[in-house]
Design a protein that fits this description.
- The structure holds two protein chains of two kinds.
- By secondary structure, chain A is an alpha+beta fold.
- Chain A has a single domain, classed as Rod shape-determining protein MreC, domain 2 (Thrombin, subunit H, Beta Barrel), CATH 2.40.10.350.
- Chain A has four helices and twelve strands; from the N terminus they run H-H-H-E-E-E-E-E-E-E-E-E-E-E-E-H.
- A six-stranded antiparallel barrel of chain A has the order 1-2-5-4-3-12.
- The radius of gyration of chain A is 23 Å and the shape is globular.
- Chain B has one domain: Arp2/3 complex 21 kDa subunit ARPC3, CATH 1.10.1760.
- In chain B, about 70% of the residues lie in helices and about 0% in strands.
- Chain B contains nine helices and no strands.
- In chain B, helix 1 packs parallel to helix 4 and helix 4 runs antiparallel to helix 5.
- Chain B is globular, with a radius of gyration of 16 Å.
- Chain B starts with a helix and ends with a helix.
- The chains are: A alpha+beta, B mainly alpha.
- At the A-B interface, helix 2 and helix 3 of A face helix 1, helix 4, helix 5 and helix 7 of B.
Chain lengths: ~280, ~180
Amino acid sequence: MRNFFQFLVRYHIFLFFVGLQILCFWLIFRNNSFQHASMLNSSNKLIGNLYVWKSNVSQYIELQRINDELAAENVALRNRLRGSFVNVNDQFVMINDTLRERKYIYKSAQVVNSSVNKQLNFITINKGKNEGILPEMGVINTNGLVGVVKDVSEHFSTVVPVINVQFIASAELERTGHFGLLRWDGTDARYSYLTDVPRHVDVQAGDTVITRAASAIYPKGILIGTVAEVAEKNGSNFHQIKILLSNDFNALRYVNVVDNLLKKEQEAVEINFENDGY
Amino acid sequence: MVTDIFGNIGRFIFFVLLQGLILNDIGLWSGMIIPYLYIAFILMLPIETPRWLELLLGLAVGLTMDSFTNTLGIHASACVALTFFRPLLLRAIAPRDRYEFGQRPSIQDMGVFWYFKYAGVLILVHHAWLFFMEVYSFKGFHYTLLRILLSAILTLILAILSQYLLFSRRRNNYA
């Protein structure tokens, strides 16, 4: 027993160091799961507001480009208004169409901070729980897929973008309909990779890659990017497809958060066959 | 002693804000090189800081940085490692007749060559720990190694510059 105490006294700093490291590793492993709430991230009030202040300063420089983007999107939406069409056939008048039920609601948010130079890149946006944003909602913008919500506080949320090595999404080649997994390799923020597409599929540079709505997070058909390069690895049954992302993550300003109203229903159905062991 | 504490709190806030709001956005060569200058706060702690306190301060500055980058635990782990190795290194590179009381681990008190050794080794330890924790594996080992080396060089240059630009007037207090 005396020896044990001597050991403790002699190595107390080293033991304290090991203890703190265990604490850190525990935090890292806990933080890697989506299902948790934590105070220590940029969705907290202090750092969120610091980032708002920072983006207010830097945004002045980019007002011109942001205006152009918003104007272009306005025109695109205006073109889809009912007033932009004439009735070809006036025998039927649509009063209330019950054949269609709303599935997605979009919420606009502003990016207050983002990083592109790390392995674990994140985006902070200025909407949170109070505006109805919840973890695991999809995030898109005019150019295409952005990422998925991770943590939310009252007024802020953090988003895991496509260019984070922990991001995974199901994606589909629009021309052939084959799907694979979208994963970033951690090097260049302009490119990502599509894996698990079988080799017999005829993939060509320039093909469009879109979302697949498999996980009920994003709507189907949101643009991800175009195929930049198809590489064959010897001995592998799958293509290694390099994708030029449609979004420039260096210049994100406004994003839309997607709320899938039927998500619970889809998950409830899918959980049954998971339980049956398929 | 009291001005020492205020000075350290001031440096904590200054370096954390500098890192969180400006330096984290610097990614030369599409994210290859990132300077992590905030550890200059730890490098400038007094030589006679108690070791347990130093470890706790490392944890504090690491967790604060993690809050900025949403990587809970990663910076904290690297900073705790840094604060564990700092006293060991200070002992290893001590001058022949030990440190004088009140002497600081700075260029002004110890000279450029000493500081180069001191900061260089500690920055390498911190960056190596941090970058390998971040990639989570030894996949792409050489690429990560290159990132560590280049980032450490940039951090070291900034650390030396900041010593000359921001904290040079201290010499008068001891002259």
